[in-house]
């Protein structure tokens, strides 16, 4: 535990000293070059440039005058991390009246924290909730969020700060955790509001009675993990409101994704001709969201899908030494988001021991001396670019949850 605590303290300092701002794998289009007429509108050039900047083994962003961004997803993941860290402190200070009084300010005295450091995390939680409220994308049916950069997907062009279900789902998940643990009514309201975004602003593709949600209001992509994040929002909002409509719509969408599971337990990324591949973290997202739906909606009909999916995940993405694989059966690369999601998925399904192995492997191989985490490790080199959302925020969320799970044992 001491190694995990030290890692988290160093990572927190790196993130805080950076004011939550940093580069992102997909921020290439923030370069002033893309204000020029030709580059502003040519999808092929924009997509190719974005991918090239992402894949370079060194960070060219300063040369391209790409500014560090303030990404709502970074804030959501850090919110999740600080919540677990505050909970972990509660385990060691059950009788702290001072921290109990501090917890009143975010909604409840149900959980209390260490008197010397409790306020530190509670203040961060309050700050991040406030910032996330300010960053809600305006003009939609409910609370929703996007990335701080414009980006080109294969089938859509999404402007900066325009919403997508992946960003919204990650942030709403953190807000729901704050509501469940602290009783924060503002967070409950945001979860309910996000469900309206899902129901009224996302597009649907029907297959019989069931359907899949789109990635954003601007496309009709059939991306399985993205639709499952919409399912999770509906299930979480159902647990807050008891509105059966939310549960019924969630069931139709999760039924669709369950029907696309392969015999070996895996899922493709999407139903597009270019999406027939399977990776670590997108599989982890599906499993996490499907399990959340099953628990919150008290629905056991997908238990076998979850069992088969987790069996595939555990056997194909985690080695005996705890190395998190990006693609099933392929040794390289090791990716920071995949590592973080491995820890979260393993914790959800009760394998804390293996989650700790993954954490230790990632800390040994991918944490910088300054405390941040590198992007990816390949066989012969490591891409040492430190991304705030992709690397640091995901590791903050994962390692803090692991530390809390260990403290519960």
Q: Would you spell out the secondary-structure blueprint of this structure?
A:
Blueprint: H1 2-17, H2 37-41, H3 43-55, H4 72-92, H5 97-104, H6 118-134, E1 151-153, E2 156-158, H7 165-182, H8 185-201, E3 204-207, E4 210-213, H9 224-241, H10 244-259, H11 280-296, H12 303-317, E5 334-335, H13 336-348, H14 352-366, E6 374-377, E7 382-386, H15 388-408
Antiparallel strand pairs: 1-2, 3-4, 5-6, 6-7
Helix pairs in contact: 1-15, 4-6, 4-7, 4-15, 7-8, 7-9, 8-9, 9-10, 9-11, 11-12, 11-13, 13-14, 13-15, 14-15
Gyration radius from CA atoms, angstroms = 20 Å
Poorly predicted tracts of residues: 95-105, 107-116
Largest sheet: 3 strands, antiparallel
> How many strands?
7
Helix content: 55-70%
Counting helices, strands and paired strands, the structural category is mainly alpha
- Distance between the first and last residues' Cα: 12 Å
Strand content: 5-15%
Strand order of the largest sheet: 5-6-7
Mean pLDDT level = 92
Q: Give me the strand/helix succession.
A: HHHHHHEEHHEEHHHHEHHEEH
Count of separate DSSP helical elements: 15
C-alpha geometry? globular
Overall description:
The protein is built from 15 helices and 7 strands. By secondary structure, it is mainly alpha-helical. It has a 3-stranded antiparallel sheet with strand order 5-6-7. Strands 1-2 form a two-stranded antiparallel ribbon. Strands 3-4 form a two-stranded antiparallel sheet. A hairpin with a 2-residue loop joins strand 3 and strand 4. The longest helix is centred in the N-terminal third of the chain and has 21 residues, at 72-92. The protein is globular. Mean pLDDT is 92; it is low at 95-105 and 107-116.
